[in-house]
Design a protein that fits this description.
By secondary structure, the protein is α+β, with helices and mostly antiparallel strands. Helix content is about 20%, strand content about 35%. The protein starts with 11 loop residues before the first strand and ends with a strand.
């Protein structure tokens, strides 16, 4: 298990766990980051990542991405 920040671009990953404070977890769940779901890193810019989750592209900060374990 590793944070989303270490995932390779173009590689589909299974979300194992979403950490952080309850409000952070709820925010990420609303965006589609739920355990058991898949996420693909589209690109990384200075540690921040753009990911494809549930047929949508979402930009996630480095801090948020580090709380998503794949």
């Amino acid at each position: 298990m590793m944070p989303l920040t270490f995932a390779n671009v173009g590689e589909e990953n299974m979300i194992k766990k979403v950490g952080g404070k309850p409000e952070t977890r709820k925010f990420l769940e609303n965006l589609g980051f739920v355990a058991g779901g898949t996420v693909t890193v589209v690109s990384t810019i200075g540690g921040n990542v753009i990911v494809k989750v549930k047929e949508s592209r979402v930009a996630v900060s480095k801090e948020m991405a580090s709380k998503i374990m794949v």
